[in-house]
Amino acid sequence: MRAPQEAAAALGAGPVRVFATVTLPALAPTILSAVTIVFLFCATAFGVVLTMGGLRYSTIETEIYQQTTDVFDLRTAAVLSIAQFVVVILLLVVVERARAGVRHQSARAGVGQRRHPTRRDLPVLASTVAVVVFLMLPLASLVVRSLHADGGWSLENYRRLGTTGDGGALLVPVGDAIASSWRIAVDATLLSVVLGLAVAITVAYRPNGGSGGRRRRRLAVLDAVFMLPLGISAVTVGFGFIVTLNRPPLDLRDSQILIPIAQALVALPLVVRTVAPALAAIDDRQRQAAASLGAGRLQVVRTVDLPVVWRSLLAATGFAFAVSLGEFGATSFLARPAHPTLPVVIYQLIGHPGGDNFGMALAASVLLALMTAAVMAAVESLRVGSVGRF
C-alpha cells in the first residue's frame, strides 16, 4: 500500500498541500505533546536560571527558593507553589482536550513509510546539524577550560576534586558527592521504574465500546495526575516535602530517604511517557490468544508484553537515572551539607569566589556530563542488543 503522502501527490497535491493535509494532521498529537513537555520544562527551569541569572532574573522557581531559604517566608512560598499548581492543571486540561480533538484525525492520516533522504531534506538536515553544534559547544568549552589551570594545560582541576576547595567551600570532597549521587540515583531509578511501570500498565489500558467511555475519561484524568511532577517543578516538590514531613510521626527532614523519593517523583512522568505508548500498542487479542493456548498470566507477560516493552523499559531506566544524576531543584532543598550530590556541589563551588573553586566546578561538571553520557550509552547498547532476544 502506498504511503498517504505519495497517494496525495499522485492526485495532484503539491508538497505544501501534502504537508498541510496529510503529514501535519498525522503529527499533530505528537507535536502537541512535544510542545507541552518543552513548555513545562522551560517554565519550571530552576538550576539554569539560578546559575546563570541568580536572583536578578527571578522566575517563580527561584522566588520559591528565595522565600524558603533566604527570607524564610513559607507562606509566600506556599502561595506561589499553589499558583503554579493551578496553572499546570489548567494547561494539562487544555492539552488533553486538544489531543482528544485531533486524535481521530491522526488515526486516519498515518505518517507514511520510511524513505531515503532527498535534496529537499537538506534544509532539515542543515538545521539539525546546527542544533547539534549549538548544543555541543558549551560542553566542549567546559572540557577545554577544565583542562586549563595555572596558566597552562593541566589536570590540576581534577586533582583538586579530592579536596574541599579553596577557603573551605565544601564540607566533603567532590568524590564523596559523586558516590552519594550514584547511590541516590540507583534508589531513585528503581523506585521510579517500578512505580512508572505500574502507572503505565494502568493508563495504557483503553477499553473499547460505549460502556468504557467513563473509564477512559478516568484513565485520562489519572494520566494527567501522574504528569503533574513534570510541570510542578522539583523546587515545589522539595518545598512540599519540607513543609509536609516536618513533624512526628513522619519527621523525615533529616532523612536521606527523601532525596531518592523526590527524584523518583521528578522522573516518574518520563518513565510513564516512555513505557505507556509501548504497552498501548500491544493488541489485546495477542494476550487472549496466548491465554487460550494455556499460557498463564506470567507466561503471557513474558511472551507477549515483555518483548514489546523491553526496549522502552530500558530507555525509561536510562532517562530516570540521568534525571536523578542531574537533579538539582528538589535536592537543593533536601540534601544535608554533609551528604551533597554532585549538582549541589557544583553550585556550591560556583558560589564561592576563587579560581581554584571555579576550576573544580568545571571539572565536576565535565564528570557529571561524562557519567550521564556513559549511562545513556550503556542503556542504548542494551536496547540494541535486546532486539530479538525474546
Written account of the structure:
The structure is a single chain. The longest helix has 36 residues, at 74-109. Helix 5 (74-109) crosses helix 9. It is built from 16 helices and four strands. 31% of the residues are buried. A two-stranded antiparallel sheet has the order 1-2. A two-stranded antiparallel ribbon has the order 3-4. The chain is mostly helical and 390 residues long. Strand 3 (246-247) and strand 4 form a beta hairpin. It folds into two domains: 12-106, no CATH class; 159-390, MetI-like fold (Orthogonal Bundle), CATH 1.10.3720.10.
Secondary-structure map:
Layout (H helix, E strand, L loop, with lengths): L3 H7 L4 H29 L3 H6 L7 H10 L4 H36 L12 H25 L1 E2 L2 E2 L2 H4 L14 H31 L8 H19 L2 H11 L1 E2 L2 E2 L6 H23 L3 H9 L4 H30 L2 H6 L7 H10 L3 H31 L5
Antiparallel strand pairs: 1-2, 3-4
Helix pairs in contact: 1-2, 2-5, 4-5, 5-9, 5-10, 6-16, 8-9, 8-11, 8-13, 9-11, 10-11, 11-13, 12-13, 13-16, 15-16
Radius of gyration: 24 Å
Alpha-carbon distance between the two ends: 30 Å
What proportion of the residues form beta strands (DSSP E)?
under 5%
C-alpha geometry: globular
In short:
The chain is mainly alpha-helical and 390 residues long.
Question: Which descriptors would you attach to this protein?
Answer:
MetI-like fold; two-stranded antiparallel sheet; 16 helices; 4 strands
